[in-house]
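Please go through the protein record below and see whether the fold suits the sequence. Record follows.
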Amino acid sequence: MAEAIVSAVLEQLTSIIAEGIQQEVKLVVGVEKEVKKLRSNLEDIEAVLVDAEERQVKEKAQIEGAEDAGVPKKKVCFFFPSSCFSFKQVSLRRDIAMKIKDVTENLDGIAKQKDMYTFNRIRSVEKSERVQSTSFVDVFEICGRVEEKSILVPKLCENSEQQLPIISIVGMGGIGKTILAQFAYNDDKVINSFDKRMWVCVSEHFDEYRIATAIIEALEDSPSNLAELDSLLRHINRSIVGKKFFLVLDDVWNEDYKKLEPLYHCLKNGLHGSKILITTRKESVARMMGSIDIINVKELPDEECWLLFRRLAFFGMPQVECQKFEEIGRQILSKCKGLPLAVKTIGSLLRFKKHREEWQSILESELWKLEEFEKDIFQPLLLSYNDLPSMIKRCFIYCAIFPKDYNIRRKYLIQLWMAQGYLKGEGNDVMEIIGQNYFDYLASRSFFQEFKKDDKNNIFKCKMHYLVHDFAQFLCKNECLHKEVNGLNEPIINSSYHEQVCHLIVTINEEDSFPNSVFSLRRMRSFLYNFEDSQVQLTPNILPKLFDELTSLKALSIGPSWRHEHVIEDIPKEVRKLIHLRYLNLSFLRIRKLPEALCGLYNLQILDINQCRELEELPQGIGKLIKLRHLENYGTTSLRNIPIGIQRLTNLRILREFVLSGGGGNGDKACSLEGLKYLDLFEELYIRGLGNISDVNEAKRSKIKNQKNLLHLTLDFRKDEGERRNEDDEALLEILQPSLNLEKLRLDKYRGNTILPNWMMSLTNLSHLTFRNCVNCTHLPSLGKLPSLESLSIWAMKSVKRVSNEFLGIESDGTSSSFTFFPKLKTLTFQNMDEWEEWDYETTRNGEEEGDITIMPSLISLSIHSCSKLKALPNHLDQNTTLKKDISRCPLLRYR
């Protein structure tokens, strides 16, 4: 951790010099010399910190000093308190000179002490190399445990004479208990054997209230608003009547049966055959819970270990090379002692080591002799951690802020890294891309697991193994904390490490229980409200004091979620005091406007106001936020316009919704569509209110085609007042040609009679296409030749009566130069097509053989809903027995 801290300080020092701030500093005599000396000292300290960190774990040595050696203890954190370091603004240049000189003198002493401890000078691995994105292996499918799975699954599916039996999986940390339980939980036989499945992570603190709440949410697919445990238990008791359920309680530690008993009894109302499965490190816990079966998970057999290790360590390596490394690989593997997590960690590390000397260094590392903590798992984790570049070490350690078993959203984590200054660009690289590379780097080394992926196979959510989380907490030394608050009498921060806390996420479970001790954490850089797990939300009265006291914050999240009633309606003016703030999350609040005071936060990079549905206007001074990169405003349905100042935000990369005014309200203070030409946007954009445009030349000047990094585009043609001519929308659509890089396109409330602008068929990367409420179109556009189209959704095109050749792109004479239509289409959806009667193609009626053309060869799913006049499907769909058909509210439709 220390190396990452010093590296951060050096980066900030370099940044100050590079940005020209030193021009003012140079006016003070001697400052330039002191700055150089400061930099030299920091570089000297940084060079030995890799060795120091390894020895700190192994020998319990402290770089700050050693009282046993008779040396006065001197703390580095006095000068730059861990990751909380920042160069604060001072009013007088003389103060700058004095502060730098004081720091330098103290660092002189620290630098000299390194010789006393005989630290080795070791440069951080890959220090000078740019971190590239890497592929990773998801090991979920290659866990092994064949014997245990063959025992567990039948036990879960069979009927037992005992009412509500409990089965236990017992084994040491990192042995694979949770993975085994997940395999069983997702097994098809198990899924088909139960009406309801529920998974709850318990962890060290057995919180009956949280567990009961999680069970209700799993049972009913919605959160509970009940405040008392007794009410929750009665609700569960009623909800499971007539249901055969399967409940997993993962990672149970508590041995007090009195805590479990009320929950167990309320679950007895389920159908016979219901089961509870627990995972625990302690057999005494399983005995206490009265398990009828205990499955003791031992070390992974040698060959299963080798299969897992080989899949990771030899990934992408030629077979000839694999044979050269097999002997040393098996020697290293023997040190993992059959622990799957250790095998996974070391295998992921060695995958990036291509030279035998590197493998030999891992084999002979002193860290294998570590006898502290989780004996057999911290050694490989520390080996893998020490191999990380210093900037990625900081990113990993920050993850200790999240609760155990937390679903970490990739985008959210990257934004928090940005806020702390952990993502430094090189050349033309942007922070967002660097953050994605860092995330992938950690994933490729198995620091993350349980990946959730989108339709492009990109991770959007993951978790950390609880032992990896323990390891991160050990490294951060209480700088990154999660605290659960259950009442005012519960101290949120232990006084022994009060001064160390820099990053805090809180879960609040009782009304009016926000602890005052938070306000004294003046060094705090992150304060995040855990809205996903909290039972109550933050109240408005705490905000003024929060803003008043925690003025060093860089990341602040106070937004609730859809699960809570929204009570915060105003952002107090004290927000202007958070001048260091870079990330601000106000999502889901009931605010109607943002205060102009917000525009004084000149360091702000990310403003999240997603789903603030009552927000009507943004501050007119938004153009002052010159460092703003993300304006997350998805779902701000009441927003009237975007202020014209947005044009000044040349760093802006993410803008979810661009709203065009209907002429009422702010008039010339609102940004026109032309304003988009000043921005370079990434990812996605929803343009709302295109029907309000009176001059199509305004659309021409917007130069949307130049937005090369814009991959998802929604064009909403709604108009605030009055009618609009159909041909106006047709002309406007023709002008709004996007970049050829576009991957997703949606048209909404389009009033034209036809949809087929000249540019549409040139979108060779287009994979998702949606038409909604295009009520005047009588024919579907010719889309069959779009080469990359995978998903097509057509909603409420109420004037379409027939779908035929033109939909495929077949010429009017029934011939076509292409014989494969919709070559990559996987999902096709029609909904609310009120006048649609016929769906057929004339090509099959003109004597052509079926083999002459191919239509939708890749189609997997067909959905048709509320098409009351449709009579039949075309033959190629009707006769497809492997096609998944989801059809409802189509009374005349006959299909096989």
Notes: The chain has 25 helices and 29 strands. The domain at 145-296 is CATH 3.40.50.300 (Rossmann fold).
